[in-house]
Design goal:
The protein has a seven-stranded mixed sheet, with helices on both faces. Strands 1-2-3-15 form a four-stranded mixed sheet. It is globular, with a radius of gyration of 21 Å. It contains twelve helices and 17 strands. By secondary structure, it is an alpha/beta fold. Strand 5, helix 6 and strand 6 form a beta-alpha-beta unit. Helix 3 runs antiparallel to helix 9 and helix 10 packs parallel to helix 12. It has two domains: 156 residues, Aspartate Aminotransferase, domain 1 (Alpha-Beta Complex); 241 residues, 3-Layer(aba) Sandwich (Aspartate Aminotransferase, domain 2). Helices cover 39% and strands 18% of the residues. The longest helix has 25 residues. Bound molecules: 4'-deoxy-4'-aminopyridoxal-5'-phosphate. The site of 4'-deoxy-4'-aminopyridoxal-5'-phosphate has 15 residues, from helix 5. The site of 4'-deoxy-4'-aminopyridoxal-5'-phosphate (PMP) has 15 residues, from helix 5. Homodimer. It is found in: Cytoplasm. It catalyses: N(2)-acetyl-L-ornithine + 2-oxoglutarate = N-acetyl-L-glutamate 5-semialdehyde + L-glutamate. Its EC number is 2.6.1.11.
Amino acid sequence: MPSPQEELLEIAKRRLYGNYRPAPVVFVRGQGCELFDANDQRYLDLCAGVAVCSVGHAHPALVKTIAEQAGRLMHVSNYFYNDQAIRLADELCRRTGFAQAFLCNSGTEANEALLKLARRHFYGLGQTGRARVIAFDNAFHGRSLGAVSMTGTPKYREGFGVPGNVTHVPYGDVEAVKKAMGPDVAAVIAEPIQGEGGVFPAPAGFFASLRALCDEHGALFLIDEVQTGIGRTGRFLALEKDGVRPDAIALAKGLGGGFPVGAMLTTEKVANALPPGTHGSTFGGNPLACATALSVLRIVDDEKLVEGARTKGAALLRMLDELVREFPNACEAARGEGLLVGLLLREGFVARDVLPLIQREGVLLIAAGDRVIRFAPPLVVTEAQLAEGVAALRRVVAALDAARRGAA
Ligand code: PMP
């Protein structure tokens, strides 16, 4: 008799469009930082659906809000206002100092809005020659044709006839940005830390230099906080650390805590760049999504999750530093901020190949780039759970290390 999980996997193979090559495990429920598969096996979730489930799975307050809002109002239309969208826009602006919020359904959509905003801003000013965007190698901004035109990894772009007018330069390289700058540049877009690109931080002063360059050339400065926002790095927004003000930012992932919500936040300067009727979506700003995001923000406050990300993230980094010291043949470095942390493996190791071994230990982690094992746990994770995850990772790394030494 096939197990419930085997039965589901057999159907998945035939019916699900397999664009992500998922691991052969089917999840049916979650609680906090734990997930349970169709055979009721427990896993410790230290990736939170790539930094999405910020308040953990099935948080009671979030579940209650979603149930109540579903019973009150789920959707109207963007041709009318709804109370939850107004409150969410106000709340996001109040917390971040931005002037207005455009509400959408994903990180891709938030970045697509940034791109359209930048080009339409200059079109509105009669500067039709300003449409080029500077983005970075290894950046990830999403997979719609607009967003993927800014994404910097060739494998995501190949074969799709991706529209042009985006110049990619090495991340962290101010001189390269200077060289790429010109009177036709509408915007520079960057992640505060490259997430998919390998939990890769920018050198100190990089964002201040980008801001200055954009000001000097009259271009907009855009920041993608989709992976880093909502407390992930130990600050509500990652870029707060640098004290640099972008003209607009993209948010998603952790904002909905597992529910699809995205937002573009804009300053006054570009608030009218997309005049009414020029951009929108059916579901963007729907009351169920907005009530969910508001609930996530309340939980982030009530449980002091931003501060928690800072202290627990520091503890995690210490544990991984120790691992690097213990197994220098397998591990090169640990890096990251708050609860967005990566373990860089030595040349020759492939992070994606190591993941199934960790999964066998009952722990879920994800890769970032080719050689980085990424931690992006729910912000409600405990230090004990992080230690459990690192202990499992240690067993796997010890085996890799022994295998490499055996082969040498
Ligand atoms: N920007 C960044 C920085 C991301 O990490 C991601 C998702 N990994 C996206 C955009 C795309 O977001 P979504 O998958 O919600 O469209």
